[in-house]
Design a protein that fits this description.
6-stranded parallel beta sheet, single chain, disordered N terminus
Length: 296
């Protein structure tokens, strides 16, 4: 009878427990809260997980600032800002799940690595179309107008590692030139750091390994991100821009500079794919592949 009573208590606690909160970080050209954008996705999550607290991050004091900061506010400053916001949110003190969209993926990963030990436990990190090894090429700029797109592309192609570009253009901070790895590692003010390219920051490794799962979703028809393999932490082999290496073939994995090999061997890395273009997926797929296994 004692065993039965304990079982009923545990079952009641499981059923009545509040769902883990969810933190969202939008991508380039998007904002946190518009009804036709991430605000719509926030409502979708709230319908699917009754009672869940969803925080869609706004970087700035308005949606206009939020949009502009996605292009022009250093990711290092954005990550610092978000770390402070999450730390003072009482609804997150017992832990939460994180979902990053496009460039919000690597920014949210940076939050895990840089301040995860100062926050409630971050349980699952889910990245949708993230650029974990950076990008080399800008086929489409998505929300940017054509003229601006051409300007950004030219800057990235010829001046991505100039200090003033690194400080003034977000996309330059995860530009990864495989033809000049030395300059990338020396001059990248964001990506090279969070990928432990120049030196090993053990806190980054420890915080990332504290995740229950690190889920990476790649879009096989992606026309925005180049190369698409970066969404699974793959990239071009150094010295050229044709041959691609998987995460498991890369130096960052073989040397375990981020602890990803350890996570992979522990079953914490999850690689999912979708056949469509950038961030294109159905509600049904998201429910079955993300919500049920990782958010409930």
């Amino acid at each position: 009878m004692k065993w039965l009573g304990l079982t009923l208590i545990l079952l009641f606690n499981y059923i009545s427990a509040e769902p883990n909160p969810i933190v969202l970080w939008h991508g380039m050209g998007d904002t946190c809260c518009l009804a036709y954008s991430l605000g719509l996705f926030k409502s979708f999550l709230e319908r699917q997980i009754p009672g869940v607290y969803v925080l869609s991050l706004r970087i700035g004091n308005s949606t206009v600032e939020d949009l502009e900061n996605g292009y022009f506010m250093s990711p290092n400053k954005q990550v610092e800002y978000v770390c402070e916001e999450l730390a003072k949110d009482p609804k997150l003190k017992n832990g939460f799940n994180g979902i990053g969209f496009s460039q919000g993926s690597q920014f949210l990963r940076a939050v895990v690595q840089r301040c995860g030990h100062k926050l409630g436990p971050i349980k699952n990190l889910i990245t949708l179309g993230g650029q974990h090894q950076g990008v080399y090429g800008l086929p489409h700029c998505f929300a940017l107008q054509h003229e601006s797109c051409d300007y950004v592309r030219k800057l990235l192609n010829y001046a991505a590692y100039y200090s003033w570009v690194q400080k003034s253009l977000v996309q330059a901070t995860y530009w990864h030139d495989p033809l000049d790895e030395a300059t990338y590692k020396k001059s990248s003010e964001f990506l090279a750091d969070i990928n432990n390219e120049m030196k090993i920051n053990q806190t980054y490794i420890d915080n990332l390994n504290n995740l229950e799962h690190f889920v990476m979703v790649k879009f096989d028809g992606d026309s925005i991100v180049q190369p698409r393999e970066t969404e699974w932490f793959g990239f071009y082999a150094p010295g050229q821009a044709k041959k691609l290496l998987t995460l498991q073939q890369s130096a960052i994995y073989k040397q375990d500079r981020l602890g990803l090999k350890k996570m992979d061997e522990a079953g914490k890395l999850v690689f999912l794919s979708q056949p469509g273009d950038h961030l294109r997926f159905t509600e049904e797929w998201f429910i079955e592949s993300i919500i049920k296994p990782y958010l409930i």
